[in-house]
Structure formats: structure tokens, C-alpha cells
Amino acid sequence: MSMPVIVVGALGKMGREVVKTIQQTPDLELYGVVDRTGQGEDIGSLIGLGTLDVVISPTLQELCVAAAQEKQPVVMVDFTHPNSVYEHVRMAIAYGVYPVVGTTGLSPAQLQDLADFADKADMGVLIIPNFSIGMVLLQQAAIQASQYFDHVEIIELHHNQKADAPSGTALQTAQMLAELGKTFNPAQVVETEHLPGARGATAPENIHIHSIRLPGLIAHQEVIFGAPGQIYTLRHDTSDRACYMPGVVLAIRKVTQLKRLIVGLEKIL
Fold first, then answer.
1. Binding-site residue positions
2. How far is 58 from 191, CA to CA, in rounded Å?
């Protein structure tokens, strides 16, 4: 049987790609879509796929109510906004729908609350800051490099319609480095910022993160290590959102096998 999937934020840039990918993947089925606009219209007609007989629902709840009556698991994929994703995930769990989340911006308190809720429901939830396999490889390389470098900074670059900063991927990268128990960037001088924020945000273990927002960008990240006489730069560039889709499909297939909330694509590879 095909896995039924609800796509929330279906008319967004990532949502459109997810809908197209589901239509092209034999073991997945587009169960329903949600978006703030286009209610009642066929999603396929709006994104150039022809009629799919799946109309845009105004609310996630009505799809969750229907999904709760299904005899097989239903997965929700959410690429919306930090202000709404928390409620979407709680609602999905409450109705027994398995969430796969690409939206970033959830606070640590919200993540903990969702983790507790997932534990009580004995359900899998996947929070994936970045679905790109290339980004997972970059992060693993950064962990290796951090054993030999004491100075590191992160630069993340995204399109100017991204609502949160720093990106969830940059925060995750900094957290992964911080978990090594090493304090980075020992002070060499007393620094003075003539403009607040000139040195970027400071993540745990004194790792600086710099965010750039410009039209023309999609999603890019650099992790730059420095030592006397050398610079080691790791960089990942996105040129097409299709690069995220293998990770999205993997997460959809995996989430129903889980019993708790997991953060990061690397945890399910």
C-alpha cells in the first residue's frame, strides 16, 4: 500500500517540490494539502501538474480528523513558518499523524514539549533542519576538523524570504561542535563592537554564527576553521531545492517506524 502524505505549506517553494516528489514516488500517495491561499482549488492545477483531484484544505485539522480514521499510518510534511509549525506538530501527534518537519525556528522549550508529547503518544516525529545529504557530510567533516582546530566560525546564507535567523542548520552545526565539550575561539584581544552584532551571534562554546539574507540565494553554509598559517573551509551550496527531496522521502518512510522525536537527518541515515 502507498503511504498517505499530507503536505502543509503546499504552495510554498519547498511545499511544491514535496508535492511533485510524492506524485513521482510509487510508494507515496498525496492524501491532502494545506495552504493559506488557494482553498478549494486543485493543487495539481496550481503548480503545473494537471488535475490531481486533491484540493487545498483551509485547515490542517480537517485532514487530521480524516486521517485518524485511516487503517494505515498517515504522515504530515510541514514546510511552513516558525509561528505555526509548533501547533501543527502538536495537532498531528494528537490525531496520530506522523510529523516530518523541515520548518526551522522551534525554540528549545518547544522542542522539549513536542518530544514529551511524542513520548506519551509513543509516536515518531522527525525534525530535520536540513534534508540535504551533502549538508550531513559537511557537518561530519566539521566534527572531524574540530579535533585539530581551536578557532571556527559559521556563515549561513539564505534567500531574503527566510523568516528565522540563524538558520536551523547553522544552529545544529554549532550544537554538534559544542557537544564535543571543547570551547572554541580563545580570546586574543578585548573585542569592541562599534555596531552591535558585528561579530555575529554567539552559539554555545563561543562559536560565532553570521547570517546573510539576499535575493538570488537559496541555502548555503560555510564552516571556516583557522589556525596559524592555514584556513580550512567547508562549504555546501544549494542550486535547486530538488536536492532536499531524497532526504524528505527517506524521512517519510522512516518516521512511522519510530517511537520518539528525533532531530537531524544524520540520525536516520
1. 9-14, 35-36, 102-104, 159, 168-169
2. 51
